[in-house]
């Protein structure tokens, strides 16, 4: 479904951001009149031996003021997959299908035995506080600014996290909670967020929170490939003092993400973790990985709703055997494991493309986060042997169109051209047809039209048998007017 949004435009009109050479060819036939700002997507199967030669055209149309007509896409036969032999990574991917069900933290949803355990934990925690030398220090029995002895909904959310982590065994949950309170006080966890720990070069690279998933969970990304560089590894993990400093920074990143949580029944009370295993040095980081996993599992129970591993290498089975003993079965039930090259396809299932960093096949750049909520994108699937033309129609003379487009794993041909309406005008090759490599990020470009017409974005997957996920978005601004017309899905 599409919608329009009208926003103020301080710049009037965009300038073209990429000065590519443009090939012109004469348009001999004028197309029929089209309504302003309509989207037409054409799909063509292009003759792989296993695919149909039929053509499917699907059209989404948007007119002004707001009128939406939708013709559904018709599924085309997919390429027959080649038989393959299962390896250990494939087996682990099947075994580790996530079975975790996130708690609502609504007391009314608890079983009678769970309600009884919650009350018992409250009573025992109150008794522990009364016997403590810091009985009058309410701060000693609080986490993230939430007093645990108040008996309100927020306190219940935190207590239920510890009970869930220990399968509602009250004494075990109490011991875990008391140890966590001691650790937070000794570590200074409440104050670590505002400290300058000197890891500027790692921020936004190794561990960082970026955007939200489709259900509103903050997403924390982890990527340790930079440590394949021995000098970098020595600077960060060279001795015990450096390792402890890194662990403190890693806790700082997590604490920043936790500050985005609601801690309310029915709210967003956990994070999503995405761990990129590409180029991760498997032996050198064993000690650091064990420390991080142990620290987080002991002191941050039920803070992660899902753990997504992407770019999983062939030796993942060895890595899995290293950290598996440190994980509970409940933690393992949250795992999603994606082999190398399938990052975008996996992440799109959980996160919208406008919230996924461009390095992982999304449309989000760091600068986007400084401009408020990201502009929504349209998603589509590009099948093997298929070419898709996205036609953005109804562009007026003098208007500027700015677009972003990405295909997960690219390895296909892309082009963009502007087709004027007027008979006898020249078609302009805004971006000549070129091969886009798998490692390339989303394309961002703009074009100012000198006459009315339409923009056609083409992605050609005819040389591949693999189905790929894709997304695009665009904004059309009329020159010398303060208004902006945006077409994108809700």
TrEMBL record:
Listed CDD domains: SEC14
Domain (CRAL-TRIO): residue spans on this chain: 210-368
PROSITE patterns in UniProt: CRAL_TRIO, GOLD
Protein's cellular compartments: Cytoplasm; Membrane
GO molecular function: lipid binding
Keywords: Cell cycle, Cell division, Cytoplasm, Lipid-binding, Membrane, Transport
Keyword hit for Nucleus: no
Positions of region (Disordered): 1-37
Cross-referenced Gene3D superfamilies: CRAL-TRIO lipid binding domain, GOLD domain, N-terminal domain of phosphatidylinositol transfer protein sec14p
Gene Ontology biological-process annotations: cell division
GOLD domain segment(s): 344-478
GO cellular component: cytoplasm; membrane
Bias-annotated ranges (Basic residues): 20-29
Similarity remark: Belongs to the patellin family.
Protein name per its UniProtKB record: Patellin-6
UniProt organism field: Canavalia gladiata
């Amino acid at each position: 479904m599409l919608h329009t949004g009208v926003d103020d435009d301080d710049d009037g009109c965009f300038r073209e951001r990429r000065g590519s050479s443009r090939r012109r060819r004469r348009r001999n036939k004028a197309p029929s009149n089209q309504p302003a700002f309509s989207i037409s997507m054409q799909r063509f199967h292009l003759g792989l031996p296993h695919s149909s030669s039929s053509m499917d055209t699907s059209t989404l149309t948007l007119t002004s003021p707001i009128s939406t007509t939708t013709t559904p896409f018709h599924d085309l036969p997919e390429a027959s997959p080649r038989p393959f032999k299962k390896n250990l990574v494939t087996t682990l991917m099947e075994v580790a299908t996530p079975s975790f069900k996130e708690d609502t933290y609504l007391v009314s949803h608890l079983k009678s035995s769970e309600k009884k355990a919650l009350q018992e934990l409250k009573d025992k925690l109150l008794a522990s506080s009364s016997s403590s030398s810091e009985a009058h220090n309410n701060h000693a029995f609080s986490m993230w600014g939430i007093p645990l002895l108040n008996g309100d909904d927020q306190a219940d959310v935190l207590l239920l996290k510890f009970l869930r982590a220990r399968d509602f065994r009250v004494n075990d949950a109490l011991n875990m909670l008391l140890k966590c309170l001691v650790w937070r006080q000794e570590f200074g966890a409440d104050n670590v967020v505002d400290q300058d720990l000197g890891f500027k070069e790692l921020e936004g690279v190794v561990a960082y929170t970026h955007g939200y998933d489709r259900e509103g969970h903050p997403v924390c990304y982890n990527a340790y490939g930079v440590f394949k560089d021995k000098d970098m590894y020595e600077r960060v993990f060279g001795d015990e003092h450096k390792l402890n400093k890194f662990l403190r920074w890693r806790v700082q990143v997590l604490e920043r993400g936790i500050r985005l949580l609601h801690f309310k029944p029915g709210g967003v009370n956990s994070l999503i973790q995405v761990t990129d295993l590409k180029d991760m040095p498997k032996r050198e980081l064993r000690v650091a990985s064990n420390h991080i996993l142990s620290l987080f599992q002991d002191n941050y129970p039920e803070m992660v709703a899902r753990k997504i591993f992407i770019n999983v290498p062939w030796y993942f089975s060895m890595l899995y055997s290293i950290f598996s003993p440190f994980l509970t079965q409940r933690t393992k039930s949250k795992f999603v494991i994606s082999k190398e090259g399938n990052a975008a396809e996996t992440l799109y299932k959980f996160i919208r493309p406008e919230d996924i960093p461009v390095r992982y096949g999304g449309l989000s750049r760091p600068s986007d986060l400084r401009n408020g909520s990201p502009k929504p994108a349209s998603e589509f699937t590009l099948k093997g042997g298929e070419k898709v033309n996205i036609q953005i129609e109804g562009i007026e003379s003098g208007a500027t169109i700015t677009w972003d487009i990405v295909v997960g794993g690219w390895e296909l041909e892309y082009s963009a051209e502007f087709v004027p309406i007027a008979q006898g005008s020249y078609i302009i090759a805004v971006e000549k047809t070129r091969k886009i490599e798998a490692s390339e990020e989303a394309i961002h470009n703009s074009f100012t039209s000198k006459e009315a017409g339409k923009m056609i974005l083409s992605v050609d997957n005819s040389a591949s048998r693999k189905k790929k996920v894709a997304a695009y978005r665009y904004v059309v601004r009329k020159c010398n007017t303060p208004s902006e017309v945006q077409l994108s899905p809700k």
